[in-house]
Each structure stands twice: as structure tokens, then as C-alpha cells.
Amino acid sequence: MSEAIIAILRTFPLFTEASEATLGTLVPHCVFQSYSAGIEINRHGEPPRFVHCLRTSSVEAWSRINVSETILLAVEAPVVFEVATAVRGSPSPVSLITRDASESLAIETGAFLRALRDDAGLCYAALEHSSRSNLLLIDRLLDQKLRSAEQRLGQWILLQLSRSQDKSVVRLTYSKRALALELGMTPANLSRLFNVLRDHGVDVDGRTMTITDIDRLRTLAEG
């Protein structure tokens, strides 16, 4: 079991430079976790009990202020969460919600912090991890500030096409409401934009988007 857990940890860039001894000290503090879709992995506003290494599927990072809510971003496995909050001892600013059935390896926060202090390779990897996360959030902020809602939706469709073997169809695998919150708009505004897309090379039928003119879509997305 120890070797299996260390092998899993090595699949995450955060742990590739950690010593074998360091990973060995983490093994007794690791917990395998399985979730169905729509499960809250952590709790917004509470200090993290675990650093979560998501092995499969994807999660949404939700946050709320009073009655307003948003999805800060959605990310796919493999990815590690709660590194910065664990280091700072801060409450989690977001709740992590699974989009599909997911598996993770959770590391007790205290054990992770001890390993971080004792292993220079792991410490540097954590710095790189936090830097990448920071740059990603800056990119998201600039996207919200500098692009119109139409451009953000167009960019999202192009991104899905780049990840798919089918370069003419995009299928939304989660709710339109979740997509609206992820793109920083209301569900009503997203529905309006789906109608606008028909004039820009995209036919929308339910959760299926068929690309009829990729050049017109790129023109919309790039402004």
C-alpha cells in the first residue's frame, strides 16, 4: 500500500521532486476518497483539514457573498487543492464541488506542512504550484475585466474545441447555470447569448453547439 500511495503522489508535479523519505512520512496521513457528482469536497470559510490531490474528473470552485454566488473557475484532474490555504492557515475562499464521480488522495494538512518544512524540493514545487495558480487567477480576472460576455463565451467554445477530437461540435456536460456562473454572467444573459451565437457561426440545440463557421466564431471571440 505504501508503494502504491507514493506512486500516486509522484503523478502530481507538486511531489515529483520530493524525496522518497518525505513521501514515506506522508503515507500514514493519506486517505483515499471517492465522491459522486455534486459533492462538496471542502467547506468555504473553514481552514482546510486536508490538501486534496484530485485524481479523476473535474471540480468547480464555488464562492458566495450573501445571496450572490459565482464559480471562480473549473479545473480537471490531475490537480492539487488547498496548498496556499494550508500554508497560510487561512479559511478556504471557495468550496470545491465535483462535477462528476471523482477520486482523490487527501493528505492531512499538518503532515503536509511538516513535509514542506523538511523537504526543499517539495517546498520549491509548492512555490511553483502557487505561482501557477496565481497567474491563472490573474488571467481569469483580466478575462472578466477586458472581454465582453460574448467574447468570453466564444473563447470558452474555442477552448472546448481545442480539447476535443470533434472540431465541429461542443456538448455541454453540466448545467447551463453552472456555465453562466463560470463565465461571470447570469443564466438569462447566457440564454440570450446562445441566440446571438447563431449570427456568429454557432447553432445551439439544448446543450449541443454545432460550429457552422469557425472563422466567424473566432472573429467574435477575439473581438
Give the CATH topology of the largest domain. Jelly Rolls
| Oligomer class | single chain
Number of helices: 9
Percent of sequence in beta strands: 15-25%
Any guess at the CATH architecture of the largest domain?
Sandwich
Q: Helicity range of the residues?
A: 40-55%
CATH class of the largest domain: Mainly Beta
Domains (count) = 2
**Unreliable segments (pLDDT under 50, ≥5 consecutive)?**
none
Tally of strands: 10
Shape: elongated
Gyration radius, to the nearest Å?
20 Å
Rounded to the nearest angstrom, the distance between the terminal CA atoms is 53 Å
Query: What structural class results from the helix and strand content?
Result: alpha+beta
CATH superfamily of the largest domain: Jelly Rolls
Mean pLDDT: 94
Largest sheet: 4 strands, antiparallel
Lateral strand order in the biggest sheet: 1-7-2-5
Q: What is the chain-wise order of helices and strands? A: HHEEEEEHEEHHHEHHEEH
Description:
This protein is an alpha+beta fold and 223 residues long. The protein folds into 2 domains: 2-145, Jelly Rolls (Sandwich), CATH 2.60.120; 148-222, Winged helix-like DNA-binding domain superfamily/Winged helix DNA-binding domain (Arc Repressor Mutant, subunit A, Orthogonal Bundle), CATH 1.10.10.10. It contains 9 helices and 10 strands. The strands form 3 sheets. A 4-stranded antiparallel β-sheet has the order 1-7-2-5. The radius of gyration is 20 Å and the shape is elongated. The termini are far apart. The model has no long low-confidence stretch (mean pLDDT 94).
